[in-house]
Amino acid sequence: MTKTAELLPGTLDMLILKAVSLKPLHGYGVLVRIRQISGDALEIPQGSLYPALYRLEHHALIAAEWGQSENNRRAKYYTLTAGGRRRLRDETAGWNRLASAIAAALNTTSEEV
Amino acid sequence: MFKRLRSLFRVLTRRREFEDGITEELRFHIDQYADELVRSGMSPGKAARLARVELGSLTNIKGDCREAFGVHLFDEFQRELSYAARLLRKTPGFTATALLTLAVCFGANLTIFAVIDSVLLRPLPFPEPGRLMTIFNTYPKAGVDRDGASLTNYYERRGHLPALASLAIYNYGTEIIGEPGSTERDPTMRVSPDFFSTLGLGPAIGRTFTEEETTSETNHVAILSDAFWRQRYNADPNVIGRLIRVNSVPRTVIGVLPPTFRFLSSDARVFLPLASRPEDRLPSRRHAGGNVIQMIARLRSDATPAQAQSQIDAQDAALEVDDPQAKMIADAGFRSLVVPLHADHVAAIRPTLLLLEAGVLVLLLIGTVNLVNLLLIRASGRVKEIAVRQALGASQGCVVSETLVETTLLTLVGGLLGLGVGAGGIRLLDALGYDRLPLGGRIAFDVRLAMVALVAAVALGVVLAAPIVWFNLRRHLGNALQSQSRGGTSGRTAQILRQSFIVAQIALAFVLLAGAGLLGLSLQRVMAVSPGFQSDHILTGQILLPWADYSEAARLTFVESLMDKLDHLPGVLSAGVANNVPFSGNIGKSAATVAGHVRRPGESARGHYSYGVAGDYFRAMGFSLRAGRFLTVDDSRRPERVCVVDEDFARYYWPHASAIGQRLWDGSGAGKDAEAFTIVGVVGGVKQAGLTENEAQGAIYYPYAFRIGDSIFVAVRTSLPPESLGLALQKVVRQIDADIPVNDLRSMDTRITDSLVARRSPALLAGLFSGIALLLTAVGTYGVLSYAVSQRRREIGVRMALGAQPSRIRSQFLSLSLRLLAGGTLLGLIGAWQAGRAMRTVLFHVLPLDLPILAGAACVTGVVCLAACLVPSQRAARISPMEALTEE
Questions:
Q1: Does B24 lie at the interface with A, CB-CB under 8 angstroms?
Q2: Coil, strand or helix at B728
Q3: What share of chain A is helix, strand, coil (3-state, %, to 5)?
Q4: Contact (CB<8Å) A54/B32
Q5: Strand boundaries in B676-760, DSSP class E
Q6: DSSP bridge partners of B700
Q7: Residue B830: is its pLDDT beyond 90?
Q8: What pLDDT was estimated at residue B361?
Q9: B38 in contact with A at a CB cutoff of 8 Å?
Q10: CATH code (residue A99)
Q11: In which domain, by residue range, is A80 found?
């Protein structure tokens, strides 16, 4: 088993938005997709996935629609809304700024001070 | 925000779908995951179990999902609602009492509020109604408080007062409208051309009157009300240009008013131009208003009433300089007053309505106090339950919202019942004649009222919850858990609170009762006033003789043949006519000049009731003769001018001499010698405007030939019940002229009764309110005392086991109630005194502090409260020590 990282608070929403932005997915698909695009490095607590999906739906960042799954069962598919796309872009930019700032800070050596 | 509300709403309306969706989605998740595990080599049973375990508690996830949408708040609310409903159902006695109290209090308040709203609060239905004023002349020192405005006033003021944007005059009338054979008598208004523009609301179809249409040659035009247009013309849009007969003169319809048009309380169905001759507009006619023509004005948007007033004062002063009667006018205290139109129109009824509003608010206060007390008692019974729940972790917010839901549920249901009571109350008001009050036609049960009820119900729910919440959260848990256990007594604070509420209730009920007593006594005193004539067995009716068909001579002929026919009618003892009868609602006065009377310094000319009479009017009305003789039929035919005055007139001018043989002229200023009237008789004084009329203005009765008007009242004295003669009277008039109806047919006693409507109905309503208040107070006192007895059951049991006499126990509780009663009555006395002072304007010959009334109120309150206390006290005395000590 590969080593998994703890999810930082607030990052679950961002990951769900990202996963859904690639292709409409049902809840379980979101879980699998996040695992896949993070290279199995991020493990999502399954219990908090659905409340997060419902919260995003309530805030109109993702839209839900019932459809057919690959094994021909009824499943609820989530797609990104325009608002969700905007939010994902903002959050990605914000995250990148934060990550590079923290990385720069952590890479500082004593000579550079 | 809006989006989220919409999504919440969507979920709430499709709740089933939402719940099924979550379940299905989670099941799909588990199945998918289990499949994946099976594919990686796990046994199906183990895979399914593991999938479930990894997802966690389904109940928790579902809860979190609901919370994400905010649905959980509604679930909680629903739970609390059904809990509250269950609790209320469990105590039907309490719930019924509370709902009944609320229904009665809300109902009474809504009813009176409907009146206050339509009469006092709701603005007149015109744009910017606050700028509408009325302007009237007043001569207070001549006994004429209100004289309307004259045509001269109108033409002199129009365009000369910068503070006024527009000025108009009008008068009310009734006209015979329609083709011969299908006429009806309709209320009408004659208005100046700028009347509609002053109000800011003109015809919906057609045009308004023009300046050219204000002479009697050119005024053959008419504007119809919407109702008249719909009923008589079937809402024909091409009605403009058609002819309509008004008093048998054809007029062209030039406009139709919108349905919303209603000027004050008028029911006018046809509007005509107010035509006049140039000689009516001369300065000499400036003070000839006679309260016939009224004036309205619209203030300029930047002007104040005070500015308009000062400009009118200045103009009046400038015009009076070259008036030959200037001194007399000034002596009479002449002024033209500018008063807001709406306030002026309802001024007379305002104090009474405010009084009634105060009465129902007191009722609501008593009801509220009652409910708080009942709820507090209920809360005391649940102290332990609440404390246990708090100890187990129920939050304070939970306790607050639970109480709030319970009280608001009560008040909302009570409010709903109150709406029903209010609808009945408005019917009752109609029966009491409230639709005849100024603007009373607007009183209705409408959405506005329902909204007020809803808001009031929610507000009252919050108010009721406050003390209960305070009571529940105030105490320490430990104390609460102990105080209700064996041997404990109830909290002292709660007891004092409950008892002071009872004191307040008794005081308020006492105030209401005393107030109702004052109104009742005042009504009784008014009804005891003699009208000055024998008012029984008289039938009266109004007949209008249109000028177009009836010259003065024709009128005389009409009256004479009417008298002749009536004298031969079976059942008629005597019959007569006059321009006006007492209690008709018309109270115009005019001036007379007494020969040889020199006005004392400071004395002004006086306005007198002046009427022309024919037939046997005095006998028909049951006037009493003080000196000389009554007028006879011959007085109208003879050239010698004679008249009869009443004793008030005689006493005023000849306090120490006989009035018989004295001479006077009709109008202000002595005329030619031949035009003087010689007084041949003095009759008893008569109340003309109403029983409460306090200043005897004096009356002059001329032979009808010398004072012919277009409206006459016929009075018939009969041995039969007067109303039974109505048809016969109408038939007689039709025999003379088929197109002349008799209007306003009422017996004299009915007229007097009707004139008291503004006094009788408040007295009745106040009586009703105080009755309800007493009942509520009795219920409240009974409830609190019963509770006190049940609280102290154990203590009483112990005392009786130790030898206390039952009578001692009983007298202990009775003395507690006596103390409460004494406190309440004392407070009530102070309140009644203040209430009496506030009521002074509506009382007639009754002092604000009337000892018999106060004593009576105290007696009634005392008896009712003691009766309410007797049952619980008796129950206390009957407590069996064995039962009290063994039960838990």
A1: yes
A2: helix
A3: 60, 15, 25
A4: no
A5: 677-683, 699-703, 711-718, 742-747
A6: B610, B645
A7: yes
A8: 94
A9: no
A10: 1.10.10.10
A11: 11-107
The reply to whether residue A55 touches residue B3, judged by beta carbons under 8 angstroms, is no
Q: Rounded to whole angstroms, how far apart are CA atoms B573 and B537? A: 10
**Residue A92 is assigned to a structural domain of this protein:** yes
With an 8 Å Cβ cutoff, are B68 and A54 in contact? Answer: yes
- Cα–Cα distance, B138 to B256 (Å, whole number): 35
> Quick one: average pLDDT of B82-111?
92
The one-letter amino acid code at B692 reads T
φ/ψ of residue B293, rounded to 5: -100, 135
Closest CA to B341 of B538, B134, B187: B134
* A43: amino acid identity, one letter: E
Counting beta carbons within 10 angstroms of the beta carbon of residue B805, is it exposed (0 to 12), middle (13 to 18) or buried (19 or more)? exposed
In a domain, A6, yes or no: no
CA distances from B873 to B94, B423, B787, B796, B878 (A): 20, 40, 11, 12, 9
Residue B403 CA to residue B71 CA, distance in Å, equals: 21
Angstrom distance (rounded) from CA B835 to CA B586: 33
Segment B131-166, tens digit of pLDDT: 999 999 998 888 888 889 999 999 999 999 999 999
Residues 39-68 of chain B with CB under 8 A from chain A are 54-57, 60-61, 64-65, 67-68
Based on the structure, what is the number of domains in chain A? 1
Q: Which of B66, B643, B46, B591 is nearest to B328 (CA)?
A: B591
Note whether A59 contacts B: Cβ–Cβ < 8 A. Answer: yes
* Residue A113 falls inside a structural domain: no
Is there a contact between B61 and A76 if contact means CB atoms under 8 Å apart?
Answer: no
Q: Tell me if residue B311 falls in helix, strand or coil.
A: helix
- Residue B620 is classified by DSSP as H
Distance between A58 CA and the closest CA of chain B, angstroms:
6
Strand A62-68 and strand A74-80: the pairing is: antiparallel
Tell me the C-alpha distance between B704 and B555, whole Å.
Answer: 10
Pull the structure tokens for residue B605: 């000319």
Q: Which of B26, B28, B57 sits opposite A73 (nearest CB)?
A: B28
Token pair of B463 as six digits: 């108010």
- Give the pLDDT mean for B534-550: 87
What's the whole-model pTM score? 0.80
> What is the pLDDT at residue B479?
63
Between CA B60 and CA B607 the distance in angstroms is: 90
| Ramachandran angles phi, psi of B496, nearest 5° | -60, -40
Which of A51, A54, A60 shows the shortest C-beta gap to B3?
A60
pLDDT value at residue A43: 77
Helix (H, G, I), strand (E, B) or coil at B664: strand
Minimal C-alpha gap between B25 and chain A (Å):
7
Of the candidate ranges B150-154, B364-368, B422-426, B543-547, the one whose mean pLDDT is the lowest? B543-547
- Of A98-112, B590-604, B735-749, B871-885, which gets the smallest average pLDDT? B590-604
CA B344: distance to chain centroid? 15
**Average pLDDT of B815-826?**
92
pLDDT digits (tens, 9 = 90+) for A46-97: 888 899 999 999 888 999 899 888 888 888 999 999 999 999 999 999 999 9
B4 in reach of chain A (CB within 8 A): yes
Q: Does the pLDDT of residue B489 top 70, yes or no?
A: no
The residue whose two tokens read 């048009």 is B261
Tell me the two tokens of residue B867: 């009766």
What CA–CA distance (Å, rounded) separates B543 from B561? 14
What does the CA dihedral B36, B42, B46, B47 come to, rounded to 10 degrees?
0
Helix (H) or strand (E) holding B123: none
| A2 occurs within a structural domain | no
Over residues B828-856, the mean pLDDT reads 91
Contacts 24+ apart (CB under 8 A), A35-40: A39/A2, A40/A2, A40/A4
Q: What is the ipTM of this complex?
A: 0.87
Angle at B700 between CA B695 and CA B702, to 5 degrees: 160
In chain B, pLDDT over 70 holds for what percent of residues?
97
CB within 8 Å of B319: residues ≥ 6 apart: B156, B283, B286
